[in-house]
Amino acid sequence: MAISKINPQHTVPTIDDNGFHLWESRAIMIYLQNQYGKNDSLYPRDPKKRAVVDQRLYFDLGTLYARFADYYYPVIFAGASYDPAKLEKINEAMDIFESLLANSPYAAGDHLTLADLSLVASISTWEIMGYDLSPYKNIRSWYAKVKQTAPGYEEANGKNVLLFKQLVDELLANKK
Amino acid sequence: MGVTLYHYPISAPSRGALLAAKVVGVDVDVQIVDLFKKEQLKAEFIKINPQHTVPTLVDGDVVIWDSHAIAAYLASTYAKDKSLYPSDPKERAVIDQRLYFDCGTLHPRIRTICFPVLFRGEDQIYDEHKTPLEEALGFLDVFLEGNDFVAGNKLTIADCSLVATISGIAAVGWNISPYANVSAWVSRCSLAIPGYAEANQEGAEAFGKAVRSKLAPGQL
Q: GST N-terminal domain spans which residues (chain A) (predicted)?
């Protein structure tokens, strides 16, 4: 089926749950949790705790992921050169993330939530693109923890990050 | 102790959060953070929100930022009318999708055009930035097809966020009339949201005026 029939915005990911069509990765995560989650630990019902998870999810989409995409995608997909001003915006976002993790082992508190799953997909992608995580002590220890505690991490993310890198290498080689 | 909203009226996300407070019906103490005077970088504000963005909401011991997270929090905590952000997973998912569309697609495409004009001395609007915005307006028009509001036939918090965004670019002078569903929905929101003129329209117009005053002639 053409994806544009079920999602006018024709983006991935999109889900079809018995005819219910939904896109936007973070909205999908929340839906899967609300519809099928056995308990609320990934996305607490308490509005104050939930708001922290939500804030981190919007931080990922609107700031962290956005700034990385703004730096890397024009190079990968449009043959542009790397723009140091955009790298500076990434570093600023990473500083914020680093400070959010100062008193919190996971992105939104003391245990794994949807925010970690979203953020680790971003961070792992940029790491494999060559972004240097070494100045970010809290982020590195968080990253190691999420890799260990997110169920099925390798299957769902780890090995696919490598595929992304392969694709990027091919695209860049073709442009030369 | 009441609820405090750190706010700047020209910011669309900030107006979106204030509109959410209006539809939810919760009184917020509005504290202005003047972005043109860089008041968001004052030490006391960074202590509250290390990302130093508006809007930021303080409710007792909890600090929340990102306008969409604020809207969801206010609706979950204070709304008598549960249809603003229903707990049914499917109904809620559509609202969440619209909120993320605002955060990740519509608002950034407007910001790419307007931020350099307001803060970096840019005076042009480039075709490479116009096309993505027209595409996003087209998506919103499709979402509204057959619906009174962005997530169905009832007003939700997604309308608050999206109408704050759209009213800003409309006030800049962007022609939204080709998007008939969007145009009609903006009017509908202006009637359905309590205090819309003061909480949103004034700030949207101030934003539009500020951007227009810095653009070279003939950009729109």
A: 1-40
- B55: closest CA of chain A, how far (Å): 12
How close does chain A come to B8, measured CA to CA in Å? Answer: 19
CB B109 within 8 A of CB A70: no
Domain ranges of chain A: 3-36, 47-175
Task: Please tell us whether the domain made up of B83-214 is placed in CATH 3.90.1200.10.
Answer: no
Cβ distance of B69 and A51 shorter than 8 Å: yes
| B67 is known as an active-site residue | no
Chain A residue with minimum CA distance to B74: A47
CATH of A3-36 given 3.10.450.50, 3.40.30.10, 3.30.70.100, 1.10.3720.10: 3.40.30.10
CB-based contacts of B47: which residues, under 8 Å, 6+ apart? Answer: none
First to last CA, chain B: 46
Q: B77 and A96: CB-CB below 8 Å?
A: no
Contact by Cβ (8 Å): A114, A53: yes
Task: Kindly list the domain boundaries of chain B, sorted by start residue.
Answer: 3-80, 83-214
Two structure tokens written together for A105 = 């082992």
CB contact (8 A) between residue B90 and residue A20: yes
pLDDT per residue of chain B (220 residues) written in tens, 0 to 9: 699 999 999 999 999 999 999 999 999 999 999 999 999 999 999 999 999 999 999 999 999 999 999 999 999 999 999 999 999 999 999 999 999 999 999 999 999 999 999 999 999 999 999 999 999 999 999 999 999 999 999 999 999 999 999 999 999 999 999 999 999 999 999 999 999 999 999 999 999 999 999 999 999 8
Cα–Cα distance between B72 and B57 in angstroms, integer? 12
Query: Which residue from A minimizes the CA distance to B66?
Result: A55
Contacts of A100 in chain B (CB under 8 A): 50
CATH number, span A47-175: 1.20.1050.10
